[in-house]
């Protein structure tokens, strides 16, 4: 047996059975229990050091950040910001910066902090006539557009080079820097053949997310189709010019069609209710990167609107209601329906007027007329807590208050008075409880699990399942008051700072 390099794990060392054994804490150990070590390092540093075999490129990647990350440091201070709320981050950085002698020596001698070999060139990626043009502040836009070479870019000149040099027809765009150099001056931009052999430079096309649509599919084609002489040539498949880059990539078999997503929705139509179909459609938009969103909408629109059609409203109103429902679902996932090619929502049929679903639902909670006078019936202790909490709400400074008392002492009565007062002023008050029974007693109450998206499985280090851009996050930011009843009945992990932040 020899030493083996494990896959994404420590090496499996060859440890010979040499017959030597030693009892340690009542256990008999032999050579197989000894960790890899270096006697010289142990003697020299006089400390615990073990040595591992590093024989993979991943080891260099893993060690790189340790070599250059620098020492650990922290600067903690509480200072008042200026009148506009600005913080001097440059001053904070300089005060926390500590240059050690080795780092000072390294910089004095001008040694490289990092180096890439071979050099990497970023290749521009853009749709027709949508490349970036730089200019100085104050310059006339028309003058910039009329400037010689303004219409040229790395990509457009790649097409021109393929026309000029027939031998490049087999070279992909990403491999072009290995054989050509990019020349750029005030009056000219072009690819020039390399004059020196042995000089290697690799190219990487700027990344594009599938949600970018045509730009992403253009990148897919450039990574697989060599020798294109124009955008139109890139869209040509078997002599037929495809209307879009997506269809060209699909025709070449470079991407999957939306048939799997279509089949998923078609199958769901046979057993799912319309509301569940709308949720599934929104999930597909967010997580599945559908390329033909309009086609999926047109095909499954009727199935998603069956429950609204029963109200005998016009098809335009029904479509608006379905789109509003989908928009609210997308907002809860941190997305905007305007980023998808779907019909526009007619605002006159939308009572929420584009407000996030969570915020809209809280803002329309009606205050019970009987609760409006509860504040006048508070006893002395309730009145003291009521005034202190409302003072924090009115000042906008915020605060954390713990209301303690045995059952039947009027805690829920106080909560109802606070909720009625805050909501009566047109502000948002979020009412949550640990148990579902208590939530049914609180006006507009929700369980903490439901409102804060706390996982049902509790463990150390858990975090709530909503993003900073979601409707829930926006609701918590807008809320003037948040009440959590029966908070002492919940487990400690739900109160950790990372749970709700």
TrEMBL record:
Q: Which UniProt keywords apply?
A: ATP-binding, DNA damage, DNA recombination, DNA repair, Helicase, Hydrolase, Nucleotide-binding
Matches recorded under Gene3D superfamilies = P-loop containing nucleotide triphosphate hydrolases
**Which EC numbers characterise this protein's activity in its record?**
5.6.2.3
What catalytic reaction does the record list?
ATP + H2O = ADP + phosphate + H(+)
Q: Does the keyword Secreted apply?
A: no
Q: Does the keyword ATP-binding apply?
A: yes
GO BP terms in the entry? DNA recombination; DNA repair; telomere maintenance
Cofactor(s) recorded for this entry are: Mg(2+)
What family does the Swiss-Prot or TrEMBL record give for this protein?
Belongs to the helicase family.
UniProt-recorded name of the protein = ATP-dependent DNA helicase
Q: What is the lineage of its organism?
A: Eukaryota, Viridiplantae, Streptophyta, Embryophyta, Tracheophyta
